[in-house]
Amino acid sequence: MEEKRIGTVIDYFAKIGVVAFRVEEEGLKVGDTIHLKGHTTDLTEKVISMQIDLEVIEEAKIGDDVGIKIKDRARKGDAVYKVIE
Length: 85
Known about the structure:
By secondary structure, this protein is mainly β. The protein is built from no helices and ten strands.
């Protein structure tokens, strides 16, 4: 299983369980799998839904700031990888 770094966590909203990050490399689609990795973070999840400014989207492109609902916590500065199967 290969991974490609696509961004860095900007923020994590604990109350709603959403991680925010800027897509820096390669696009991201609903259905893709991401891996969040940091000092105390190691979480792999399938992208079920994605939003930009509270608007639901199916695909994000380079430069977009996206919010994705996740099951565990993430921290500012964590790396975001796209899992390539």
